[in-house]
């Protein structure tokens, strides 16, 4: 192709990857509001912030999540680096935090150790409402020297209070116990007995799960499998005495807090590392969970650390935003109004740079468009952003060391010396 022909070819713009969405300026107030709520709840309940890399070794997730989990089998973004390392974009937060806890000896911070995090996660699945291939979670984790059920409740409470703080009403907390290494083999046997003559009615995934991890049969959302599991044995009927006592205490604490909950005997969650308590949190009218989590008594030991029970829960930020928008929940953010600085001429433009910094140091928020020279264009912008006051700084004012303050509602103007501008603005703004 000749250079002349190449010029004729229209270049197509590059678009974002499927399921990898931009967070545009218009949506930032929603994200800011949620992050503020999470940070405040974490601070009140004494959780310490931790940040882990978005890229980890593949084995970090294969081991604790389970080779047969949907996330490991179908949904992980995994690839080899140029050096031959098998890596993955993290699909969830708990495994990374446990890795960091072991690697850096965070037990020296004392136990129980309360940690919180917020950031992007990645799963290769069909984008859907509230869930994209890059999505964001905020979560709370408690690692302790014992498996006191009070920590289960504190984790659920942190998630619940965050949603409540965001004015999401009619929150539905669903809870179950899936037992431990002692009682789960008995339950597994009873479950297999129930499904023994029903394999032909299962979906393709569940026909595989029945031979690899039967408990995941209860996590299937395919309609035929949903009907079958309604009559399946329930985990809470097969708990050992320790798990029964633990679950009883969890429910007692929830009732003491008057935190509304409902038992869901078919709730199991999708990762192998969960033991005993599991939970999900829904908003009325929505069929996706806003938050979920559970206890993991064996995870730290499984990953090479000293046996330390833990419990955690995470919330999906995109899903929370969808609920807040659908329910038309006000952000309640009172944005401090900004004054608008209008310049006329090169001398005023140059001196405006210093004036803006002086106003910033005085705690006065300023908008400007120093790239525009037209007075009318700058006034239109001031009106567009509903600035209560405009400062008009022209060649004459720059020479006389003064400035014009214009009330944008009434049009009234006042000329004041530059050295008194801060006091004059504060008087007019209050």
Output the keywords.
BirA Bifunctional Protein, domain 2, 20% strand, 16 helices, 430 residues, alpha+beta, Rossmann fold
What can you tell me about this protein's structure?
The chain is 38% helix and 20% strand. A hairpin with a 5-residue loop joins strand 15 (402-407) and strand 16. The chain has helices at 3-8, 28-44, 58-65, 70-75, 94-103, 149-165, 184-195, 204-212, 223-229, 241-256, 299-302, 317-326, 346-361, 375-384, 395-400, 421-429; strands at residues 48-49, 55-57, 77-80, 86-89, 113-122, 134-143, 171-177, 261-263, 275-283, 291-295, 310-316, 339-343, 366-368, 389-393, 402-407, 413-417. It has two domains: 25-183 and 239-326, Bira Bifunctional Protein, Domain 2 (BirA Bifunctional Protein, domain 2), CATH 3.30.930.10; 339-429, Rossmann fold. It is an alpha+beta fold. The strands form three sheets. An eight-stranded mixed β-sheet has the order 1-5-6-11-10-9-7-8. Strands 13-12-14-15-16 form a five-stranded mixed β-sheet, sandwiched between helices. The model has no long low-confidence stretch (mean pLDDT 89).
């Amino acid at each position: 192709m000749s250079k002349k022909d190449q010029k004729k070819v229209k270049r197509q713009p590059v678009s974002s990857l499927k399921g990898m969405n931009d967070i545009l300026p218009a949506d930032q107030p929603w994200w800011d509001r949620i992050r503020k709520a999470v940070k405040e709840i974490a601070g009140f309940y004494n959780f310490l912030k931790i940040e882990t890399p978005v890229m980890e070794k593949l084995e970090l997730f294969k081991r604790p999540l389970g080779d047969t989990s949907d996330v490991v089998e179908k949904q992980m973004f995994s690839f080899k680096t140029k050096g031959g390392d098998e890596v993955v974009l993290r699909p969830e937060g708990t495994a990374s935090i446990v890795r960091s806890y072991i690697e850096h000896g965070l037990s020296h911070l004392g136990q129980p150790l309360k940690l919180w995090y917020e950031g992007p996660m990645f799963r290769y699945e069909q984008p859907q409402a509230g869930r994209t291939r890059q999505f964001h979670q905020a979560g709370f984790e408690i690692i302790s020297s014992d498996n006191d059920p009070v920590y289960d409740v504190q984790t659920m409470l942190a998630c619940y209070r965050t949603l409540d703080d965001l004015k999401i009403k009619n929150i539905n907390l669903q809870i179950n116990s899936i037992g431990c290494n002692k009682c789960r083999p008995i339950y597994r046997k009873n479950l297999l007995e129930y499904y023994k003559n029903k394999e032909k009615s299962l979906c393709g995934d569940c026909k595989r799960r029945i031979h690899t991890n039967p408990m995941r049969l209860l996590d299937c959302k395919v309609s035929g499998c949903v009907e079958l599991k309604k009559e399946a044995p329930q985990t809470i009927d097969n708990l050992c005495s320790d798990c029964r006592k633990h679950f009883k205490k969890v429910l007692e604490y929830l009732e003491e807090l008057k935190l509304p909950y409902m038992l869901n005997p078919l709730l199991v969650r999708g990762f192998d590392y969960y033991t005993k308590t599991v939970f999900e949190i829904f908003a009325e009218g929505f069929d996706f969970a806003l938050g979920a989590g559970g206890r993991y008594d064996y995870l730290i030991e499984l990953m090479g650390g000293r046996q330390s029970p833990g419990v955690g829960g995470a919330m999906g930020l995109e899903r929370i935003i969808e609920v807040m928008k659908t329910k038309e929940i006000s952000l309640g953010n009172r944005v401090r109004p900004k004054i608008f600085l209008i310049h006329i001429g090169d001398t005023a433009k140059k001196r405006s740079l210093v004036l803006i910094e002086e106003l910033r140091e005085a705690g006065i928020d300023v908008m400007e468009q120093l790239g525009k020279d037209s007075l009318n264009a700058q006034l239109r912008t001031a009106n567009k952003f509903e600035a209560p006051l405009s400062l008009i700084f022209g060649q004459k004012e720059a020479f006389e060391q003064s400035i014009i303050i214009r009330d944008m509602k009434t049009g009234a103007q006042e000329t004041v010396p530059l050295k008194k501008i801060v006091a004059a603005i504060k008087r007019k703004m209050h």
